[in-house]
């Protein structure tokens, strides 16, 4: 009888131990909660690392991460790569970061209409994506609740660029200075970004429509694509100068680099006229050109504000935390930063802002 009791007692102890071990194993293996970590890994994929605006944004992103590390004591790995304007290259870069278990992807698409590959891979790995600067089509962005976009509204940039011109043309003294031949019609050339790019189309069409709606007479002498690039714009502008040696009264550029390229060409050729020139973005070189009265105006695209907003969101997503109150989502997907006008009268404020 005692032997039976001892056996039962041994069995009971073994059973309890087995249950305890199984419970520990099951609780470890069955949990899907993201455990707190002292490191966040953020990948930033850009369409081209040599784009002036994008380069300034990634610089602000890195600066934000270094300061956040000091403030919160959490290591932030931020890896930034450029795709050299190849969507296939960018897709491969995204695959490598996903395989490397990065917490968040921040993507400046090469082709805004071709986000499917990156989205599919991110969804399969449950890695959030923040698109920026180049807005994906709405159908792609609505596929998953962990897809976001940070940027600015392209139409507003065209409207404000037109306002710079309208304000100048509304001043009789400035109008007579711009309208060199005195015929009441402004002869202009347009330097556009990439063919088919949303910002190119919107900025070009909105700006010229606003000018016409304001009652001004315009004559377009030339319209050239310079792909957002200063050197390409310089070459295109030299060709336009050869074609129109005494007619170009205004240059409207889709971004500052192209506006600066036009200035380079004008200065190199000692062009007979002094055209009114406007750009968009408010880059450091453009601000200096406005200060020295070589560029007549630009539309400020808040690179610093957008970069810091992207990092605020990436940090929260990487920590599996709610977005801070500074992140104001539109339709649960979009964060838009407003544009603003820069002219000689207020350029110092913007120079001080970005120091």
What are the salient characteristics of this protein?
Rossmann fold; alpha/beta; 355 residues; disordered N terminus; 4-stranded parallel sheet; 2 domains; 49% helix; 6-stranded parallel sheet
pLDDT averaged over residues = 91
Q: Number of helical segments?
A: 13
Sheet bearing the most strands, described? 6 strands, parallel
Assign the structural class, choosing from mainly alpha, mainly beta, alpha/beta, alpha+beta, or little secondary structure. alpha/beta
Could you name the ranges where pLDDT drops below 50 across 5 or more consecutive residues? 1-35
Number of strands: 12
State the fourth-level CATH superfamily of the largest domain: Response regulator
Number of separate domains: 2
The topology string of helices and strands comes to HEHEHEHEHEHHEHEHEHEHEHEEH
What can you tell me about this protein's structure?
With 355 residues, the protein is an alpha/beta fold. Helices cover 49% and strands 17% of the residues. It is built from 13 helices and twelve strands. The protein has helices at 2-30, 52-72, 87-99, 116-125, 138-141, 154-169, 172-178, 198-213, 230-243, 256-269, 284-291, 303-318, 347-353, and strands spanning 39-46, 75-82, 104-107, 129-132, 147-151, 185-192, 217-225, 250-253, 276-278, 298-300, 334-336, 340-342. Helix 3 (87-99) packs parallel to helix 4 and helix 11 packs antiparallel against helix 13 (347-353). The longest helix has 29 residues, at 2-30. It is elongated and about 70 Å long. It starts with a helix and ends with a helix.
